[in-house]
Amino acid sequence: MRRFTRMTNAFSKKFENHCHMVALYATWYNFVRIHKTLKVTPAMEAGVTDRLWSLEDMVGVVDERGANQKAKQETERCS
């Protein structure tokens, strides 16, 4: 991954952004990408999911998590 190489355009200057990008890559690798040797995704092979995810599914998970965190911050602020 080019994120770990400092001399590229993809290098993350903020550690938080780097962590987010690594998490997205790990999700894509395990849920979206079909592996040649397995013929399915690692998540399907492990029994975590029974279907192939699309990139839209990944975006939906990220949006849902963001909405949940925003709601949690609102309730904490109001308390």
Provide the helix percentage: 55-70%
Contiguous helical run count: 3
Structurally, how many domains make up the residues? 1
Order of helices and strands: HHH
User: How many strands, which pairing sense, and closed or not: the largest β-sheet?
Assistant: none
Shape: flat
According to DSSP, the number of beta strands is 0
Strand content: under 5%
Low-confidence stretches: none
Q: Note the gap between the termini.
A: 43 Å
Radius of gyration: 16 Å
Could you say which structural class the secondary elements and strand pairing correspond to? mainly alpha
Task: Provide a descriptive summary of the structure in words.
With 79 residues, the chain is mainly α. The chain has one domain. Helix content is 59%, strand content 0%. It has 3 helices and no strands. It has helices at residues 15-32, 42-46, 55-78. The longest helix has 24 residues, at 55-78. The chain starts with 14 loop residues before the first helix and ends with a helix. 3% of the residues are buried.
In short:
The protein has 79 residues and is mainly alpha-helical. It has three helices and no strands. The mean pLDDT is 86.
What attributes characterize this protein structure?
3 helices, mainly alpha, 79 residues
Topology:
Elements: H1 15-32, H2 42-46, H3 55-78
